[in-house]
Amino acid sequence: MGTALVTGATSGIGKEIAWQLAGEGNDLVLVARNTAALEDYADRLRNFTGQSIEVLSADLATEEGARAVADRTASREKPIGLVVNNAGFGLGQDFIGGSLERELQAIDVMARAILIICHSAANEFARRGYGAILNVSSMTSLTAQGTYSAHKAWVRTFSEGLAETLKPYGVSVTVSCPGLVHTEFHERTQVDASQWPDLAFIPVDKVASRSLDAVRRGRVIVTPSPLYAAAAGFLRLAPRRLVRSVAGPGRSGRHD
Ligand SMILES: NC(=O)c1ccc[n+]([C@@H]2O[C@H](COP(=O)([O-])OP(=O)(O)OC[C@H]3O[C@@H](n4cnc5c(N)ncnc54)[C@H](OP(=O)(O)O)[C@@H]3O)[C@@H](O)[C@H]2O)c1
């Protein structure tokens, strides 16, 4: 895939995707906010794999951060073959009584930054006639768990449309919709992950490998687990009233 740019590469799914890509012989650009964590991980990847690992520290909740990443994806001197828009977080609050600032950060990171980065990547990749984009959505794109679900539904629908737009140019777009994964995600959101049975969690290496495999095969949507693929089928067919009652806002088991 040449050089891959991965956002949210210091933890969880993004970190594992970066690991697998470097292990397969790809150079990387790692993106997140925490510069020390980025540098530390870049050193480890260089030592283990011998690949060239670049660090790009950026806050994707800001216009400046999103545009810096977008500019890097479109570089002609150091071309990017794969862009992975993975950075994201749970809101950890209710809409009523919650902080509007946090709501805006969430939509900026999980929708606006993806739009800005994909606009840049799509135009450059279409011009030169190759490249791939992997966007990380979620199973919650099919539920009604507040604004987080809405952002993930946007990522899913946007990616499907972009895949069609870019197909004639030889550029692929894949959207991955994982279910529960053990990462820092729940801890950062103060959600008690022990409320769900172990069976409900997909190992992070499987999420990464199945998502990357879908990119290689040019698949548009991947649900990287048979259990959640079945759940997705159910969610598409179930009456929305039922979906809202079992997977609506406030059903995330947060500690307050
Ligand atoms: N874990 C799950 O159960 C699950 C399920 C379905 C989908 N997902 C999705 O998978 C993606 C990865 O989540 P994860 O579970 O791997 O979470 P995680 O372990 O908390 O990792 C999140 C990553 O995103 C980065 N990030 C967060 N805010 C950022 C910002 N403003 N600017 C730049 N980078 C930022 C973090 O680094 P810094 O803090 O250093 O910036 C970190 O590297 C997210 O989009 C999430 O919504 C997760």
Automatic annotation (TrEMBL):
SUPFAM superfamilies: NAD(P)-binding Rossmann-fold domains (SSF51735). It comes from the Bacteria. Keywords: Oxidoreductase. InterPro entries: NAD(P)-bd_dom_sf (IPR036291), SDR_fam (IPR002347). Gene3D superfamilies: NAD(P)-binding Rossmann-like Domain (3.40.50.720). Pfam families: adh_short. Belongs to the short-chain dehydrogenases/reductases (SDR) family. This is SDR family NAD(P)-dependent oxidoreductase.
